[in-house]
Amino acid sequence: GKPVGRLEVGRPMVKSFLNPLSIRKIPMVGDVTFQLLSRVGIRKIETLAEMPVDVLEKLLGKNGSTLWKKANGIDETPVEPYEERKSISTEQTFEQDTIDIQKVKALLVAMVEKLGFQLRKEGWLVSVVKVKVRYSNFDTQDKQCKILYTSCDHILLKKIHALFDELYQRRMRLRLVGINFSGLVRGNYQIDMFEDTNEMVSLYQAVDKMKNRYGYDAVQRCAGIIIKKDKK
What we know:
- By secondary structure, the chain is of the alpha+beta class.
- The chain folds into two domains: about 15-70, 5' to 3' exonuclease, C-terminal subdomain (DNA polymerase, domain 1), CATH 1.10.150; about 85-230, Dna Ligase, domain 1 (2-Layer Sandwich), CATH 3.30.1490.
- It has nine helices and five strands; from the N terminus they run αααααβαββαββαα.
- Strand 2 and strand 3 form a beta hairpin.
- Helix 4 crosses helix 5, helix 6 packs antiparallel against helix 7 and helix 6 (about 100-120) crosses helix 9.
- The radius of gyration is 23 Å and the shape is elongated.
- The protein starts with 13 loop residues before the first helix and ends with a helix.
- About 20% of the residues are buried.
C-alpha cells in the first residue's frame, strides 16, 4: 500500500488477490444482490468468477456479465486520477430557528467530535477551521482561522467556539450552523507540548479504539449526548 491508500496489483496477481474476497467488495453488489447470490452459494469472488456467464445473466440480467467481468479482473471503466481530500465539513439546519446559544454550542461540540473522529480514523490533520451561521432572514456569514496542524477535539473545539463567539454578534435567531476543516495533510496525533500529557494522548487512543469497535455513539462528551436526546 502507498501513503495515499492505493494498492497496485499486477495483472498476474489479479486472480489470487480477488479470489479470497467477499463479493461485497465489488461496488455493484448491494444488499439485495448479495442476498440473491448467497442463496445460490455465491459468497466469494472466486465462486462468482467460476460461474458460467449465461447462468449469471439469467439470475441478474445484463448485470450478470458485468459482475462476472469484475470478478475476473476485467473492467473497462477509465481510471481516474486519485484526488486527496481537500476539506471535511458538516452542518445542520434547525427544525425551528433558535436563539438558544447553549444548544448551538452543544451542537458544535457534537460536530467537532464527529469530524475529529473521522479525521483521526482516516489519518488527516487540519490547519484551517471555519464556522458558518445562517440567520432566520437567510443571511449567511462565516469566519475562519489558521491553526497548527491537529486532529484533536479539544484544540479544534476551542477554536470553533472562539470563532462562533466572534461571528455571532447580531443576536438574531439562527437557522443553520456548520463547521469546516481544511488545509488537510496526512498525519497522526500531533502533541502540543504545552497542553497535552501522556494521559491525554492515551485517552484519545482509547476513546477512538472504543468507537471503532462499538460504533461512533459509544463514547461522547456530555453535550453531544444531550443533542442526541433532544433529536429523539
